Amino acid sequence: MNYPNRWWVLPLFLSCLLGASRAWAGDAPSARSACDSAAAPSADADSSARLYAAGECALQRRQYREAIKSFSQLIGIEANPVFRAELGRAYLGAQEYERAREQFLIALQSNPPEAAKRLLRLFIRMADQQQTQAKDWFAQISIGEAYDSNINAGPMSPEVTVYGLPFTMTQDSMPKSDHGLHAAFSAVQNRSLNDHLSWQSDAALDAMKYATYGNYDTAQLSLDTGPHLALAGGRSEFYLPLGVIRTTLGGGGYSASGFFAPQFSVRVAATDLLVASASIARNRYDAAPAQNATADGLGLAWRHVLGGNWTVEPSLKFVKERAASPAFSDLARSAGIAVSGSLPHGLRLTAASAVTWADYREPEAWADAARRDRRRNSSLSLSKELEGGYYASLSWLDLRTRSNLGLYSTARRQLQLQLSKSF
Fold it and tell me: pTM for this one?
């Protein structure tokens, strides 16, 4: 079925947003007639026409979930860019701003009329702004089962060199595998102070309870707060958070950190976002004062949208750590890439990989050379939105370190099944 020119729907939606009462010329049916035709479709109307009328009616009645269902089914029949724009409107009404933005970008890439282009760009800006301004708080709780192949970060080989002599590690020092319950909670509040300035606060709690090795149970609490400034209609943003992190191991204290981590982002195009970050942190270890350190970091990332449904994000990061003992002072350089996007049947895929090179200043007392590591982190996650605002996800993580010191060469794999609920 062909819809030769349905871009009139976008200015109609804009008039609704502005609260205007306006008649539209031509053969464009009103939203009321869309409801009439959805309620009593003609006998010869095909499924596309019925779905379109039902979607328009649901939008008029602010039944955004029903509209999402109708337009999603319609796109499965015919990938018309107008249907993409209508689906974006439905997501916008349902406050799913990232998904709304994706659909508007796909519609924009179809080279619509100039008036429709202007409105689509307006909707994209609305989605960007509303993502942080629609409500001043957001929370998520997750619970699931996790498996870890090396909870104690044991070495890959029992044969190591200590004080220049060969040494065989005991079995207790080798990798231990376990499974257990993983729970997490996060909350964000973004309180508006004026048109450009808001105050953002974040809190997160993450806990892992193992079935066998309780002495490796972990918990981490993080808090940060700071001003968030948006300029140029949200095109440029500054965030200046000051925060703390506390980590426990086996029910006892392990480490504590305080940090200042300014971030700056600028949207250089409708599909491109540059993010620059810096960090100053003070790290303290309860049982290892020689590792207490000050760390300075710089980061740069570029987020690019592909086809509206996929995002690719390469990144670079540099961290210099100055510890109480020079043997634990290091310079780390990281390069990574992350890809995420939508799959059929409402699935979403995220894949990421990063490589870090870390060089330490001096050897430890037992080592004959300063430590040099190459660390590779790879992850894969598949998630699906369920009814009632729930999300199910299956994730896999592979961590590998190759070091000139055999004690630090490790391999670790984690598998996790998680159920999340957003508020």
Answer: 0.71
